[in-house]
């Protein structure tokens, strides 16, 4: 399973954080609203308690001059109640009807009050203010306990209405925060896109290194990559020289072995001489291919070559050879197309392909250029016998020679394929009916 991109990870984390923050904010705002509603309700209940105190007359015993005419206190089970204890004798509002509110615990000290919740009639949940006051003066003062309560359903409905009004605003705020988070992530990751563009430039040969024109957070990464590229180039250069030195070191001993084979043949040991020559020929194929591979330029990504010039030079050279002199060379490679390959590499690859075409053509060799966007192909087509379909894939293998009646080591096509792959392209072989078409596909600068 492919892991999520860095962008999506940051967006998901930011979205989850914003969602959690919005949920927490909703809970906090609802709690604050509940506390505010409760403070308002308690303040209202305190005012109602003062009304009740004003109708109590001192005794002994204390008595109520008249019951307040508040309609809510007169309507049964209205949700607004009061209950007074005059010397432990409870007096209830008419709204309580025959229900006595059960209050747990002793009365508060005189002059003190407490806020509590009670179970009311009809499964109502009540918010109540419980307090005790002294009615009268001096030693004649009588303690009176007053309880004023109201149903919390109105507060619950107000809370629900508050949340209904709040949620659209919270949703709009969350959408704005998500958009801001997306913009932040997009702008924050833009330097990574810049690095990607620089890497594409490296791959396409438009840049030599990533460079240092990057933000401070990613500049060390770019510097480290540039150092790695420098180290890679130095190591490839050393490996190329070592391979070339090794291949050159083998050529002299192999030539000496061929001389020994000739000497053995002169002495009548033809079978032994043929065996030595066969082994030496195979080894020379390996050496020659490694020499060719060592000559492939490691800086091919930054090179640009117009194929028309190498093709013209190769046609001129091959036209002087016995195979090329008898052929009609038809060249349709207009100037102006720039292939991303070093001129020496392109010359060597085209030389191997054109030499192979000259070797097998009957009358004519055609060389053309086909361009398709970021790729171009130099197509070399002969009118020879072609190749069996089952042998096409084997032609680029090292040392494969399908026609052993002619000279050659069977490594030309393999070298051309190696050069094309090193430059980011490929060699495609196909029967042209008649003949063989070799298409050297290479990246180019699209015009």
TrEMBL record:
<keyword id="KW-1133">Transmembrane helix</keyword>
<dbReference type="InterPro" id="IPR036890">
    <property type="entry name" value="HATPase_C_sf"/>
</dbReference>
<dbReference type="InterPro" id="IPR050428">
    <property type="entry name" value="TCS_sensor_his_kinase"/>
</dbReference>
<keyword id="KW-0472">Membrane</keyword>
<keyword id="KW-0418">Kinase</keyword>
<keyword id="KW-0597">Phosphoprotein</keyword>
<dbReference type="Pfam" id="PF02518">
    <property type="entry name" value="HATPase_c"/>
</dbReference>
<dbReference type="InterPro" id="IPR005467">
    <property type="entry name" value="His_kinase_dom"/>
</dbReference>
<dbReference type="InterPro" id="IPR003661">
    <property type="entry name" value="HisK_dim/P_dom"/>
</dbReference>
<dbReference type="GO" id="GO:0005886">
    <property type="term" value="C:plasma membrane"/>
</dbReference>
<dbReference type="InterPro" id="IPR003594">
    <property type="entry name" value="HATPase_dom"/>
</dbReference>
<keyword id="KW-0808">Transferase</keyword>
<protein>
    <recommendedName>
        <fullName>histidine kinase</fullName>
        <ecNumber>2.7.13.3</ecNumber>
    </recommendedName>
</protein>
<feature type="domain" description="Histidine kinase">
    <location>
        <begin position="245"/>
        <end position="446"/>
    </location>
</feature>
<dbReference type="GO" id="GO:0000155">
    <property type="term" value="F:phosphorelay sensor kinase activity"/>
</dbReference>
<dbReference type="InterPro" id="IPR004358">
    <property type="entry name" value="Sig_transdc_His_kin-like_C"/>
</dbReference>
<keyword id="KW-0812">Transmembrane</keyword>
<dbReference type="InterPro" id="IPR036097">
    <property type="entry name" value="HisK_dim/P_sf"/>
</dbReference>
């Amino acid at each position: 399973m492919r892991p999520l991109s860095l962008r999506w990870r940051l967006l998901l984390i930011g979205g989850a954080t914003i969602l959690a923050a919005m949920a927490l904010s909703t809970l906090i705002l609802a709690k604050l609203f509940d506390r505010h509603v409760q403070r308002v309700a308690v303040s209202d209940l305190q005012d109602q308690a003062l009304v009740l105190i004003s109708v109590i007359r001192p005794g002994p015993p204390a008595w109520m001059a008249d019951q307040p005419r508040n309609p809510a206190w007169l309507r049964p089970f209205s949700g607004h109640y009061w209950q007074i204890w005059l010397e432990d004798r409870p007096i209830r509002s008419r709204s309580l009807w025959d229900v006595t509110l059960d209050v747990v615990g002793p009365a508060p000290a005189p002059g003190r009050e407490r806020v509590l919740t009670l179970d009311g009639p009809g499964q109502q949940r009540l918010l109540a203010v419980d307090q005790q006051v002294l009615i009268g003066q001096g030693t004649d003062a009588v303690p009176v306990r007053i309880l004023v309560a109201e149903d919390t359903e109105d507060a619950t409905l107000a809370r629900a209405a508050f949340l209904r009004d709040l949620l659209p605003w919270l949703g709009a705020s969350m959408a704005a925060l998500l958009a801001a988070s997306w913009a932040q992530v997009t702008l924050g990751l833009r330097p990574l896109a810049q690095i990607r563009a620089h890497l594409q430039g490296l791959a396409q040969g438009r840049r030599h290194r990533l460079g240092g024109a990057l933000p401070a957070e990613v500049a060390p990464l770019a510097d480290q990559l540039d150092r790695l590229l420098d180290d890679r180039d130095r190591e490839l250069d050393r490996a190329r020289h070592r391979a070339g030195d090794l291949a050159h070191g083998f050529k002299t001993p192999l030539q000496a072995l061929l001389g020994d084979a000739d000497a053995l043949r002169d002495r009548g040991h033809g079978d032994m001489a043929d065996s030595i020559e066969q082994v030496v020929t195979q080894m020379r194929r390996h050496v020659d291919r490694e020499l060719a591979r060592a000559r492939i330029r490691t800086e091919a990504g930054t090179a640009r070559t117009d194929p028309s010039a190498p093709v013209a030079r190769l046609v001129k050279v091959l036209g002087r050879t016995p195979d090329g002199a008898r052929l009609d060379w038809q060249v349709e490679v207009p100037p102006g197309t720039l292939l991303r390959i070093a001129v020496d590499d392109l010359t060597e690859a085209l030389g191997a392909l054109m030499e192979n075409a000259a070797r097998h053509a009957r009358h004519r060799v055609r060389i053309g250029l086909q361009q398709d966007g970021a790729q171009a192909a130099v197509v070399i087509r002969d009118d020879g016998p072609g190749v069996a379909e089952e042998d096409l894939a084997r032609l680029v293998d090292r040392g494969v020679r399908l026609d052993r009646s002619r000279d050659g080591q069977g490594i030309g096509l393999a070298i051309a394929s190696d050069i094309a792959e090193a430059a980011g392209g490929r060699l495609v072989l196909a029967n042209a009916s008649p003949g063989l078409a070799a298409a050297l596909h290479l990246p180019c600068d699209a015009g």
